[in-house]
Design goal:
- This protein has 357 residues and is mainly beta.
- The chain is built from 5 helices and 27 strands.
């Protein structure tokens, strides 16, 4: 069997880079391993400013991510599960799920290959990176998780929740438009009655943020706009998501199979509406408001002269601040897909539900 190529940064490579102005001094040979296996690369890695750079396709594929190169802007997009990375040649600014990151070393072209910072892309995709100075070796540990389309790697299993899935949750604390502030963080626990009937294992929490708040004012009811940005599994592992509040009525969701709820696609004039919490005599209603691009909630409510909701009884029409108590059930629509490592044997409990679809 052919011996795997071990990626090394050799002294000759370092000197060659120094001659092109890419590297000031020669570096000792460096080995790169992923999950204990040598990383095979199309061209040798290089070091710049104390950072190891490797060919983008080799490292992203080794970590199970899909990668695209855009010649027009000379930028890179890579995706694995719910994580999206953006990089650009010569640019020290990178984006991870829309969040700005500053790199110590920008991506560059070497021997016709695009090289990216090894530690940054590995850690952005959830891997652990360690440097052994004595062995001059970079070790990357993905925890057995690579891939983004269902395959098992190194004995690991993972579960993918599709975009558009709706996750019932119960609030872990009270929320009120009377005292909440924009940016407040809260959590909600995934609701589960029987093992396997929810998208995530029992005990999973979704981290939410108060995106906007409107306090009761004269004839205008209070309102809360909520978003969700992380899934926290029972073992403490976290996955970035983009989620939003959704009503759970038949106009908003479908039930394709037991254990799975999907949001109905928006159509026509409702494309720009979103669900918010609205104060009412009963405590709250989930209503729809039209939010134009870059508009804020208070402006949208003012422009509409109110809000759209289904009247349930006369008391509901009384304007009030939103009051949502701990334990209240809400629906969270996942606007991006998310894949998580199954360290719980949850796939075996979940599979009977999904096999019914």
């Amino acid at each position: 069997m052919k011996k795997p190529h071990i990626s090394r940064i050799t002294g000759l490579t370092a000197l060659a880079l120094a001659g092109t102005g890419l590297l000031a001094t020669a570096q000792a040979a460096t080995t790169v391993q992923v999950n204990g296996q040598a990383l095979r690369t199309s061209v040798p890695p290089v070091q710049m400013n104390g950072r190891t750079l490797v060919p983008m396709r080799d490292i992203f594929q080794a970590l199970g991510a899909t990668v695209q190169w855009h010649q027009a802007n000379q930028d890179i997009t890579a995706t694995r599960g719910g994580t999206n990375i953006w990089l650009q040649l010569g640019n020290r600014v990178a984006m991870v799920n829309g969040q700005r990151r500053t790199l110590d070393q920008a991506p560059l072209i070497y021997r016709g290959s695009t090289l990216v910072p090894l530690r940054f892309v590995s850690e952005a995709l959830g891997a652990n990176v360690n440097w052994n100075n004595q062995l001059q070796m970079v070790s990357i540990d993905t925890g057995g998780y690579t891939g983004s389309s269902g395959q098992q790697v190194a004995g690991a299993r993972y579960i993918t929740v599709p975009a558009g899935a709706v996750v019932p949750v119960t609030l872990d604390q009270d929320l009120s438009s009377a005292n909440a502030n924009r940016g407040d963080v809260f959590t909600a626990t995934v609701k589960s009655a029987t093992a396997g009937d929810s998208e995530f294992p029992p005990g999973t929490k979704l981290q939410g943020v108060v995106s906007d708040v409107v306090r009761k004012d004269n004839d205008r009811a209070g309102a809360l706009d909520l978003s969700f940005n992380q899934v926290v599994l029972p073992d403490g592992s976290r996955y970035d998501v983009r989620g939003s509040l959704t009503a759970m009525d038949n106009d908003s969701v479908t039930h394709p199979a037991p254990g799975r709820i999907m949001a109905k696609p928006k159509t026509g004039k409702n494309d720009n509406t979103k669900d918010i919490l609205i104060g009412a005599g009963a405590g709250f209603l989930i209503g729809k408001v039209l939010l134009k691009q870059n508009s804020i909630l208070s402006a949208a409510l003012g422009a509409l002269g109110g809000y759209i909701y289904g009247k349930r009884n006369d008391n509901d029409t009384k304007v009030a601040d939103v009051s949502v108590g701990r334990g209240t059930e809400l629906g969270v629509r996942l606007d991006t897909a998310v894949s998580y490592v199954d360290n719980f044997g949850y796939a075996n409990q979940r599979s009977p539900y999904l096999s019914l679809q």
